[in-house]
Each structure stands twice: as structure tokens, then as C-alpha cells.
Amino acid sequence: MSIKKLPSLTFNAGEYVVYPTHGVGKVSDVTKQQIAGTELEMLVVNFDKDKMTLRIPTAKIQQVGLRKISDEKTMNEAFATLHGKAKVKKLMWSRRAQEYENKINSGNPVAIAEVVRDLHRTDNLAEQSYSERQIYEQAVSRLASEVSIFSDCSIEEANKKLMDILAK
């Protein structure tokens, strides 16, 4: 049995990346660091919104799911998902909430768009429970941050773009 070698991803300082559980961050440096007597090459990623810095060993990049900003095909698929009709399963809220959290933490813009579409309320946001609103806002925030980098616009413009798509 042969082991399939995955193509290695290379990231450069100044480049935006997506860390599945934290969203969009910016690579600030690629550095070497001594840890327990071993020299490791580390990717330093800053998340300004959360005021957080992650140091990821380059050997673990694929394991943690770090990826580049989505391409046009993926973003268009996410926008098409937003245009679709909401699909609300008849599961208990706790199960649906867990599914939504898993989709958001997958880092996949299409899956995040599904959460936004399913939880979006046009007429009255007050009818949402607190936890439903929290999950919805987290999904919108994650998707908008990637859309803003993809479209080279501000977060506010990206939010407006998403809301315009949902309003149609």
C-alpha cells in the first residue's frame, strides 16, 4: 500500500489565509523556532479581529486545514447557496446548532453560506433565539471576512453584499 503525498502549500508573509476554526488571518512571518531542542519552521498568522496570533508548524499546515482565500468558483458557489431556499431540518435545536457550528468551523465558505441562508430571517430578527442569533452572526462574520478579502472591499461592504444577495 502506497502513501499518497499531498501537494505542499506555501504561504508568504502578507498573504491572507483561512484557518477553519478562527476565520481569515494574515501571515505575518515564516520563522524558525527552537522547541524542545528541535528547530521547527513556523508560520505566524495574525487574526486582528480577535487580537490573536497563531504559530503553526509548517509540517502541520495541512492537518489543521489552513488554506488560501477561496477562488472565484468557490465564492460563486457560496453566493449561489445564499440565493437558495432555506432548508431547516426538523431536528431538535441542539442538534441543528451542533451541525451549524460544525459547518462554520469547517472553514468552507459554501457550508458557512448554508448556515447563513438557513438562519436568515427577513421579516423579524427578534423571533430568533439568542443562540440562533449568535450562530447566525458568527456565520455572517466569517463569510463576510472572506468575501471582503476576495472582493478587495471593507467588511461593511462585504456584509452589505451578503445582505443584498439574501434579500433577493
Overview of this structure, please?
By secondary structure, the chain is of the alpha+beta class. It folds into two domains: 16-68, Thrombin, subunit H, CATH 2.40.10; 72-167, Methane Monooxygenase Hydroxylase, Chain G, domain 1 (Up-down Bundle). It contains six helices and five strands. Strand 2 and strand 3 (38-47) form a beta hairpin. The radius of gyration is 18 Å and the shape is globular. The N and C termini lie far apart (51 Å).
Per-chain topology:
Layout: E1 16-19, E2 23-35, E3 38-47, E4 52-57, H1 61-64, E5 67-68, H2 72-83, H3 93-106, H4 109-119, H5 130-151, H6 155-167
Strand order, sheet with most strands: 4-3-2-1-5
Number of domains: 2
Span of the ends, CA to CA: 51 Å
Output mean pLDDT. 86
Strand content: 15-25%
- Structural class comes to alpha+beta
The CATH topology of the largest domain is Methane Monooxygenase Hydroxylase, Chain G, domain 1
Q: Report helical residue fraction.
A: 40-55%
* Low-pLDDT segments: 1-7
Please identify, by name, the CATH architecture of the largest domain.
Up-down Bundle
Give structural attributes.
Thrombin, subunit H; Methane Monooxygenase Hydroxylase, Chain G, domain 1; 2 domains; five-stranded antiparallel β-sheet; disordered N terminus
How would you briefly describe this protein structure?
Helix content is 45%, strand content 21%. It has 168 residues and is of the alpha+beta class.
